[in-house]
Write a structure and sequence with these properties.
The protein is α+β, with helices and mostly antiparallel strands. It has two domains: 115 residues, L,D-transpeptidase catalytic domain-like (Beta Barrel); 52 residues, LysM domain (Membrane-bound Lytic Murein Transglycosylase D, Chain A), CATH 3.10.350.10. Helices cover 14% and strands 31% of the residues. The chain has an eight-stranded mixed beta sheet with strand order 3-2-1-10-5-6-7-9, sandwiched between helices. Strands 11-12-13 form a three-stranded antiparallel beta sheet. Strand 5 and strand 6 form a beta hairpin. The N terminus is likely disordered.
Length: 183
Amino acid sequence: MPVKYGEAGTQLIINTHMRRLSYCRGDKTPSDYPVAVGKPSTPTPNGNYQVINKTINPGGMLGTRWIGLSIPNGPYGIHGTNNPSSIGQAVSHGCIRMHNSDIETIFPEVSVGTPVIIVSGQDNAESDAPAQGHSGVRTYTVQSGDTLWQISIRFGISLEDIIKANPNINPAQIYPGQQINIP
């Protein structure tokens, strides 16, 4: 069963196009952090993963914290960096880099098993790209496991704006196949 914001508490959503990590805790407003992601030749893999291990002071270029991910053909992880100027860039070998102070903030609250969702925010797949309607309104078809939080992060639109654009839906009860207006 897919993890939903209100059910599991904590999850991390990484938008590689926007180079942002959203730290989500239940129904609280997510905390956003800038990140560095994989360069075009070694991109950060999109998908649904989970935290598999954590290390304090892994050393070297990994900064002060390491959060290992279940991405196949790894190791891949979210880690600090000894090169803070790389944050906001697509420069890694596929890992997600954070400022040491930012990863130190989330590290104690993220546990093994925490869901990690990585999206590009610019997917060309029909299920991810908003379709242009007849009146110029973009729509998105809800996929299994989606939440409005995830949709807002995926498209870089505030949750409040999505709710305003969809006054006839219950934000807590969206379902696969439902059409959502994307402002």
